[in-house]
Fold:
Amino acid sequence: MKYRLLYAFVSFALIALSVFSLLNWGLTLGIDFRGGIVIEYQISGEFSSENATNLLSDNEIEVGSIQQIGENNYLFRLGDINQEQRDRILELLNQSGQTAEEVRFERVGPSIGPELIKKTIYALLISAGAILGWVALQFKSIKFGVSAILAMIHDNFILIGIFSLLGHFYSAEIDFLFVTALLTTLSFSVHDTIVVYDRIREIRKKHGGTIEEVANRALSETMRRSINNSATIALMLISLMVFGGSTIFWFAAALLTGTILGTYSSPFVAVPVLVLWEKIQKKRFRK
Structure:
């Protein structure tokens, strides 16, 4: 806890950068939020969705996903295209060593609409409330629950801000996979925080001491475990980014960012908030 002001500075700097990016550039929304075109092709011959995605992207055609729905049938989810681009796609597919025939073409709305976004926000609020109540009940103090929720909000907000920056400079889009990564970060952040809190409770019960002494000892005893756990996840996600292809690159990048943030926030946000709260509370009781 000696360097808690430094941790606070790092967090506030990241939050300020996120706010700046969101206010200036917003989020780059993907096809899942904007809608687009769905084309079904019947393709004979050797076909690679990864190669097709790269080929179309090189020709400035936005590809959301390519999904196999039959033995030789593939569903292309694309951004809005004109007739010239539609003809160009068929031409490119036929030039790639296979024979392609268009089976179906339709314009579709966003798969993540306003109603689904609203329900997702409600679900998040209910989940956050349930987590707050459960943590407060388990640790017999509302301070633990509120501190865990603040750390969770810290992680998710910064993750959104980072993707706002990546969207502006590297065209990273917010899509259904990003929402999945956001929810995964939420659960990972709370899980790691509870591990530290549980150690604080055990040390306090067995050895006592001031909240700062207990927190320092708990962090020392759980830090190696948290780093090893996160490093294992990070290695897997880096492998996905390198070898998984462009389709899941930004999904893996979002999960990696969320893992780093969750590992950071548990000892350096959730615990300092708890320590500060208890110190302020004790000062008030003394008065």
